[in-house]
Amino acid sequence: MSSAHLSIGDLSRATGTKVETIRFYEKNGLLPEPSRTQGNYRAYEPAHLSRLSFIRRARDLGFSLDQVRALLTLSDDRSQSCAAVDVIARAHRDEVERKIKDLQSLKTVLDQVIESCHCNIVADCAIIESLAPAPQGS
Amino acid sequence: MSSAHLSIGDLSRATGTKVETIRFYEKNGLLPEPSRTQGNYRAYEPAHLSRLSFIRRARDLGFSLDQVRALLTLSDDRSQSCAAVDVIARAHRDEVERKIKDLQSLKTVLDQVIESCHCNIVADCAIIESLAPAPQGS
DNA sequence: TATACACCCTGTAGTCGCTATAGGGTCAAG
DNA sequence: CTTGACCCTATAGCGACTACAGGGTGTATA
Ligand SMILES: [Zn+2]
Ligand SMILES: [Zn+2]
Ligand SMILES: [Zn+2]
Ligand SMILES: [Zn+2]
Q: Does the pTM of the predicted model rise above 0.70?
């Protein structure tokens, strides 16, 4: 029946996840504890592999571990409304959107600062000047 | 002469930096240790305030503490060429640019995933489906 | 003078999502 | 019988703070 057990290294290779990370997910309640072999090795079922793939895809999409935990719980109760799923996904997208905007205005400032530097000595450097609040002298 | 000493709270209010963060900067060599009062309180000079402002502005622009440290060192030796300043600033801008691109393609995927959800039950949820690698049955 | 209160001190531990050791045990092949 | 790949636990580190715990200081007021 259970001849198809997978080692932690198998899961690692199958999902591109470091072995330590898989153990970390287990310790943090994202991946259920598998059974063990005689030699105390973790022996995973195919369901573990599915679950780990789910976690990794969600992580690749930038969901936090808390969000992944919530998504996993939701996906386990398949008769529920998916409204809660939608809330999590939209909240995450909004945050990504906000980060993009923040970084874009940051880049605008950086571009200006860098543009203003004419590569003289530090005393005249516009980059440094833009960081320093006021010249110390006078 | 030195009647204008500033307390750590003064620096905190003047720069919008938490007191603990100021002590953290000191411990990590970004802000030099100030003299102390009789009661062992930190007593800052105006130069400390300038330096802290510099740090904060650089942090606001997203420079890492290592980069800030380097910028501070460069700004202290005002006769140097500003080429090194330029290198740091451009490297940072490139990284910001890269992050924007990464987040934009991430957002594209999230938009697609969210768009595909028609708010039925979890069993049919396109968001969950896009995370799960394959249905367990069959 | 007591005491309340705001402020300061040190030191340590927590956050997030891993990653990297240290110091061992297991298992199959040669 | 030893090598080597794999596995185990436990702990500490990353970056950049933040949040205590458990005190001390300094001043205004009842
Ligand atoms: Zn330049
Ligand atoms: Zn310059
Ligand atoms: Zn929906
Ligand atoms: Zn849905």
A: yes
